[in-house]
Amino acid sequence: MLCPTYVSEVIPHRSLDEMVGTAHLIPSALYNADLLGEDGFECVDRIDGLYAANDGGALTDSGVVIATGWTRQRWWPSWARFRWEFDAETGAFLRRDTAPGGYYAQDIYQGAGGELWLKLVTGPLQLLGPDDQPSGVALLPATFGAIAFRAVLVDRLANRVVMTPDVDRILEVRALDTGALLHTLQVPNRPRDICYEEGTRCYVLTDSRDLFILDYLTGRWFGAVKLTTLSGDAARIAWDRRYRRLLAIEQVTSPNYLNQVGISGFAMRPVITHLCAPIPLTRLRAGTTVPVLVKAVGDLGEGIADGVSVAAAGPNLVAPQNFVALDGAGESVPQLQLLAAGDDVLSLSVSVPCPR
Questions:
Q1: CA–CA dist 66, 71 (Å, integer)
Q2: Of 88, 213, 277, 312, which is least surrounded by CB within 10 A?
Q3: What is the 3-state secondary structure (H, E, C) of 12-72?
Q4: What is the pLDDT of residues 282-337, one digit of tens each?
Q5: What are the CB-based long-range contacts (under 8 Å, 24+) for 143-151?
Q6: Global pTM?
Q7: Residue 301 Ramachandran class (φ > 0 left, ψ -120 to 50 alpha, else beta)
Q8: How far apart are CA 206 and CA 122, in angstroms?
Q9: What CA–CA distance (Å, rounded) separates 319 from 338?
Q10: What are the contacts of 78-82 at 24+ separation with CB within 8 A?
């Protein structure tokens, strides 16, 4: 289960004093109609990137969380592109800076090695250098059998590209060097964003707010969870390696100067969702002691280490252990005594804490 652990300040709008240019001299016909209200000089229009960096430079020792995107402003040219930085521990807004890419930038993705990839409206995916300028390395969609990149993750070390092709509800894993198709995976809805976690695992967010964990080396799904805190289908996600939490920011669907856009962080906390039916490991015979396998499963399909209460309801069965601890796989083998032939009921229960 994803539990909220981090909330940043909202992206601050610039005041009139912070704006450059001479807005009051621009004819009113060129004003943006959405921004004519009180203090309505700028608003966030679109978020096109979200990533975390361990090095906060001179601003903070806690690392930074960075969102990139576009704003609408009240006068010509009516747009600007920025990078907003937040403290990764406290969520405090740190600074605003120019985002890489300029007018032709469409999206920014963080690769498995922490590097940034800039998707251009003209098609290519460019690797950015440490100075946020193109490094000269570029990937073309045609190499990977696509007309355009939609959501994409690049792992140069593992020689993999995870991407959404031109077909909805499909995720592809391809070789980075040749573009060869290695895995084709179906998802319930169109993938919205992909972000690296660790090893060869990544998170895949769909339009329906389903969040999947994928091992892209083997093509195996680990499970899914619903990201219920998002209200729409326009969002970006990232993984903060330092604090081991998933970050999410929701894009604005109806931009206006009243929009409040901030970053949320979530920690994956194992929570039991069901107990499997107990399985006798030997033949049931009266007068014998029988080991029984019990297992607790979480919302991602994983076994969860916890404790299970065991109770027998009738006269033919005795459970000497009324509480058993589960191992790392969520399993345990309590012993049951079969006193006599007949039917009986074995009850299992577990306490599930409410997430905070």
A1: 15
A2: 277
A3: CCCCCCCCCCCHHHCCHHHCCHHHCCCCCCEEEEEEEEEEEECCCCCCCCCCEEEEEEEEE
A4: 888 888 888 888 888 876 677 777 778 878 777 878 887 778 888 878 888 888 88
A5: 143/179, 144/172, 144/174, 144/179, 145/172, 145/174, 145/179, 145/181, 148/123, 149/119, 149/123, 149/125, 150/191, 151/109, 151/191, 151/192, 151/193, 151/194, 151/204
A6: 0.76
A7: left
A8: 24
A9: 9
A10: 78/30, 78/32, 79/45, 80/42, 81/105
Amino acid found at 18 = E
Joined tokens for residue 284: 């049931």
Contact 50, 247 (CB under 8 A): yes
- Distance from C-alpha of 232 to C-alpha of 205, rounded to nearest angstrom: 12
Token code pair at residue 142: 């045609």
Contact by Cβ (8 Å): 9, 249 = no
